[in-house]
């Protein structure tokens, strides 16, 4: 009762009216939390740097070693054996063992151990079996250099750390949540770790990045050596099987096929993407078929899968390990350096023990030879006491032990007395000499290894790589990812309406005027009759300003959409004309596009997605001595400025109305498009190889190694496979030349053709399974050189030089072509094409074009003309 009263007083407040309630924690409670936190960090969640194991993993490995007899053991039996060392339940031990087994490195498994691809769990521990892998037996255990401690109940001995001679922590990875800290060490590639260890021993620089058992594509640009603040991005590998089917063949680390499919279905339910159905055909390898409706772009769907589903995720590593009973944060490179140095120390310790054992063997073999060869055993026949026997043998050995490397001890003499008579009678001097000589050779070899321990360690790692490296090549493909803008790939899953007169926009105004399809993450740009502009997020109902004249989905950083506008500057003021872009703004702010005078009014407005410049007719009201009441204005004569520019004066007289006379052509220069082979995407930012300048009607020519040819619009969302061999601006009248091996006839053929159907992907070669594309040329007048295989017993045929234009005329894409040669071909090489001058293009229009890059959003007013003559002027 007294303890309880004291405890209650510790937790009591000073009084009901106290301004501050202070709670004191004393007694046992003061240390319990710290003890618990330390226990969780050191004994449960965080691995040790010495061997890369958490305590439960280390105890499982020790139990497996104790049970090891070369045969499989029931996992339930291993779990029970481990419980002698691990003071926790069987479930935690079983789960930890399954995790080790699924990493396919230390444990040789048998039975259903689950599937990391599908997320299926392992069978019950009584149904599955395990034994140590050969790699584990070679690398993890070495009892002679292992430090031991008593188990939790004092009945057994367990290793403090296992002598692991490999960067196992980085190979397997580790994850754990402790009290106040966590660790997340990502798995790395087996072969790359060995190569890095060798480089470390040679004093060379190295870099290591993660490699995941689920494969996938990874971007390690911001990995930051696994330290806090680092991040890697992981993606599923998605291929386009046909225009209505996508195939996911590899999944990101940290997901499985079930969770991935669930995320896709949720995104479909929310309207972010649109799919018909999903089929999961995963077995030994991942195969998820995503069927998409007709009319939906597969390229945009791939981007949408990355943007809105678990097909792309971000992983933040945090390399925390236990060193000297303290948690330490290190980079993975430093972990590998310490692991490699630790391996060298372990190898050195093993060699030192081996040298000591060899010297002991040599010492006793030499002593045994002296004992038998000199018949010293006869001198003990007359001795009646044990002391006399020991003394007689010692005296007998004295004349012969000068060449021994150490003094003879009583223990040595006792061992001599244990030699059996049968061994003495069958003693072979030659064999004894051979044994001693072999021991001397091994001693010298061991000393050499100790003197050259770094070279020995390098050879050790090379042996591991040769012995266990097969089938452990990198699985995750390293790439640099392009950033996907969600607003560009989201499916337009709702409809936008407008009440122009009252000034409302929204998705719930179903009885009002329909504007466009939109997504719930879109921004909407709105222009009003008074010359105001606002950009706002899609919502069910939003008020902007009365008398809306234009509503559209806003594209951020859009330099191509150009707004043409004529407005009256206040009541009775002059009229101005302006052209501008809107690239970025503050959301929900009402911007004034006029001079800000009251009663300003928009007389004409148009939004042009490609900078089109129309011609308008201005009609004035009859007033005073105005001589000209009607004239035309071409917007192409007006420079594109910032939205805040005042504009050019049109007239100071009242305008009756403005009419559209003629639709305009684009005043923007053709877009320059580049291909970045790092991310396999098109861009307009100058990254990679320049493909050319593209107008709206221009197409790209795409040909892959399998022989498929197609033309496509240069959409920046398009995905390109790694087997693309031609990617260039398509010229309709430029012939394409193909040299291919025809599988049925087993001959090389050559053909020239033009693409006539721009909406269809076609195969250049024949469909025989042995047919293959050898060379594809897009030069106007190509040349090739053919070399031949040397026939047996004959001279090799001289190389054949072929002018393709002269060799074959232009035929259809489905034509077989002409046989190149009947001889066996060694190789076909491209030569410099013959000279050719392209005909000059005729000018289709004389509109002055404006470079997008020169439109910089200048908000300064442009100069105006204040001439008050009767003739209205522009500029």
Provide a concise account of the structure shown:
This protein is of the alpha+beta class and 875 residues long. Among the domains are: 29-200, Topoisomerase II, domain 5, CATH 3.90.199.10; 492-666, Neuraminidase; 671-831, Neuraminidase (6 Propeller), CATH 2.120.10.90. Mean pLDDT is 86; it is low at 1-18 and 842-875.
| Tally of helical runs | 18
Query: Which class of the domain at 492-666 in CATH terms?
Result: Mainly Beta
Biggest sheet, open or closed, and with what strands and sense?
A: 5 strands, mixed
The quaternary organization reads as single chain
Just name the CATH architecture of the domain at 492-666: 6 Propeller
Structural class of the helix and strand makeup?
alpha+beta
The number of distinct β-strands equals 48
Radius of gyration: 41 Å
Q: What share of the residues does DSSP label as strand, in percent?
A: 25-35%
CATH superfamily of the domain at 492-666: DNA gyrase/topoisomerase IV, subunit A, C-terminal
Instruction: Give the overall pLDDT as a whole number.
Output: 86
The CATH topology of the domain at 492-666 turns out to be Neuraminidase
Itemize the secondary structure elements and their pairings.
Layout: H1 2-10, H2 29-45, H3 55-67, E1 73-74, H4 75-82, H5 90-102, E2 107-110, E3 129-132, H6 134-139, E4 148-150, E5 157-159, H7 168-172, E6 174-177, E7 182-185, H8 190-201, E8 217-219, E9 232-235, E10 237-242, E11 245-250, H9 257-269, E12 277-280, E13 288-291, H10 298-308, E14 312-315, E15 320-323, E16 326-329, H11 332-373, H12 386-397, H13 410-417, H14 421-425, H15 429-451, H16 453-468, E17 477-478, H17 486-489, E18 494-499, E19 504-506, E20 513-518, E21 523-528, E22 532-537, E23 542-543, E24 548-554, E25 562-568, E26 575-580, E27 591-592, E28 601-608, E29 612-620, E30 630-634, E31 640-641, E32 648-651, E33 655-666, E34 671-676, E35 681-683, E36 689-694, E37 700-704, E38 708-712, E39 724-729, E40 736-742, E41 747-753, E42 762-763, E43 772-777, E44 783-788, E45 800-803, H18 804-807, E46 810-811, E47 818-821, E48 825-831
Parallel strand pairs: 8-17, 26-31, 41-46
Antiparallel strand pairs: 1-3, 2-3, 4-5, 6-7, 8-9, 9-14, 10-11, 11-13, 12-13, 15-16, 18-19, 18-20, 19-23, 21-22, 21-24, 22-27, 25-26, 25-28, 26-32, 29-30, 29-33, 34-35, 34-36, 37-38, 37-39, 38-42, 40-41, 40-43, 41-47, 44-45, 44-48
Helix pairs in contact: 3-4, 4-5, 8-11, 8-16, 11-15
């Amino acid at each position: 009762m007294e303890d309880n009263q004291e405890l209650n007083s510790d937790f009591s407040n000073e009084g009901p009216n106290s301004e501050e309630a202070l709670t004191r924690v004393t007694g046992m409670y003061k240390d319990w939390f710290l003890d618990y936190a330390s226990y969780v960090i050191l004994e449960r969640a965080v691995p040790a740097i010495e061997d890369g194991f958490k305590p439960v993993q280390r105890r499982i490995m020790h139990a497996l070693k104790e049970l090891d007899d070369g045969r499989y053991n029931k996992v339930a039996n291993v779990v029970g054996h481990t419980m002698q060392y691990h003071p926790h339940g069987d479930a935690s031990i079983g789960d930890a063992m399954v995790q080790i087994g699924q990493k396919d490195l230390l444990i040789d498994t048998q039975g259903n151990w689950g599937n990391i691809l599908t997320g299926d769990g392992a069978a019950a521990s009584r149904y599955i079996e395990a034994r140590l892998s050969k790699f584990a037996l070679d690398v993890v255990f070495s009892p002679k250099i292992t430090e031991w401690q008593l188990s939790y109940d004092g009945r057994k001995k367990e290793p403090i750390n296992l002598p692991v001679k490999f960067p196992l922590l980085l190979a397997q990875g580790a994850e754990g949540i402790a009290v106040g800290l966590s660790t997340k060490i990502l798995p790395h590639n087996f072969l790359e770790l060995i190569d890095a260890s060798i480089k470390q021993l040679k004093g060379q620089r190295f870099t290591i990045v993660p490699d995941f058992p689920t494969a996938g594509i990874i971007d390690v640009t911001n990995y930051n050596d696994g330290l806090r603040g680092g991040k890697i991005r992981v993606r599923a590998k998605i291929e386009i099987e046909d225009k209505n089917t996508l195939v996911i063949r590899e999944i990101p680390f940290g997901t499985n096929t079930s969770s991935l499919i669930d995320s896709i279905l949720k995104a479909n339910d929310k309207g972010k993407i649109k799919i018909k159905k999903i089929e999961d055909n995963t077995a030994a390898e991942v195969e998820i078929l995503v069927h998409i409706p007709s009319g939906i772009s597969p390229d945009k769907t791939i981007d949408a899968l990355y943007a809105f589903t678990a097909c792309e995720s971000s992983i933040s590593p945090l390399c925390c390990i236990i060193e000297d009973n303290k948690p330490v944060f290190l980079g993975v490179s430093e972990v590998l350096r310490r692991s490699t140095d630790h391996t060298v120390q372990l190898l050195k310790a093993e060699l030192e023990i081996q040298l000591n054992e060899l010297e002991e063997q040599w010492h006793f073999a030499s002593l045994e030879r002296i004992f038998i060869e000199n018949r010293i055993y006869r001198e003990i026949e007359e001795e009646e006491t044990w002391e006399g026997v020991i003394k007689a043998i010692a005296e007998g050995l004295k004349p012969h032990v000068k060449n021994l490397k150490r003094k003879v001890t009583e223990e040595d003499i006792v061992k001599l007395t244990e030699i059996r008579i049968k061994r003495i009678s069958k003693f072979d001097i030659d064999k004894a000499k051979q044994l001693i000589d072999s021991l001397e050779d091994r001693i010298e070899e061991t000393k050499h290894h100790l003197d050259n321990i770094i070279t020995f360690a390098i050879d050790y790692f090379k042996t591991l790589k040769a012995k266990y490296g097969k089938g452990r090549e990198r699985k995750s493909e390293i790439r640099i990812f392009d950033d996907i803008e969600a607003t560009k790939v989201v499916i337009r899953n709702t409809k936008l309406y407008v009440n122009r007169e009252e000034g409302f926009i929204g998705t719930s105004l179903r009885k009002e005027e329909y504007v466009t399809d939109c997504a719930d993450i879109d921004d909407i740009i709105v222009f009003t009759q008074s010359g105001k502009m606002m950009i706002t997020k899609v919502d069910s109902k939003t008020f902007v300003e009365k008398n809306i004249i234009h509503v559209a989905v806003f594209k951020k950083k859009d330099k191509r959409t150009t707004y043409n506008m004529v407005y009256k500057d206040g009541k009775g003021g002059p009229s101005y004309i302006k052209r501008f872009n809107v690239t970025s703004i503050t959301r929900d702010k009402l911007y004034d596009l006029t001079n800000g005078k009251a009663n300003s009014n928009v007389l004409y407005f148009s939004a042009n997605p490609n900078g089109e410049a129309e011609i308008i007719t201005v009609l004035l009201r009859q007033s005073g001595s105005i001589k000209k009441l009607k004239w035309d204005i071409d917007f192409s004569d007006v420079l594109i400025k910032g939205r805040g520019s005042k504009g050019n004066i049109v007239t100071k007289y009242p305008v009756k109305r403005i009419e559209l006379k003629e639709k305009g052509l684009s005043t923007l220069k053709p877009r320059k498009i580049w291909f970045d082979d790092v991310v396999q995407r098109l861009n307009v930012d100058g990254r990679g190889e320049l493909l050319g300048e593209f107008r709206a009607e221009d197409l790209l020519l795409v040909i892959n190694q399998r022989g498929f040819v197609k033309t496509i619009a240069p959409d920046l969302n398009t995905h390109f496979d790694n087997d693309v061999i031609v990617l260039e601006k398509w010229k309709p009248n430029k012939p394409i030349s193909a040299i291919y091996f025809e599988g049925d006839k087993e001959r090389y053929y050559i053909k020239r053709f033009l693409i006539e159907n721009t909406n269809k992907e076609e195969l250049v070669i024949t469909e025989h399974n042995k047919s293959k594309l050898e060379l594809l040329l897009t030069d106007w007048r190509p040349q090739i050189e053919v070399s031949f295989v040397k026939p047996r017993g004959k001279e090799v045929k001289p190389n054949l030089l072929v002018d393709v234009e002269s060799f074959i005329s232009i035929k259809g894409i489905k034509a077989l072509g002409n046989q190149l040669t009947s001889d066996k071909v060694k190789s076909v090489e491209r030569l410099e094409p013959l000279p050719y001058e392209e005909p000059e293009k005729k000018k289709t229009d004389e509109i002055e074009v404006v470079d997008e890059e020169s439109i910089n959003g200048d908000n300064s007013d442009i100069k105006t003309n204040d001439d008050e003559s009767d003739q209205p002027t522009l500029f």
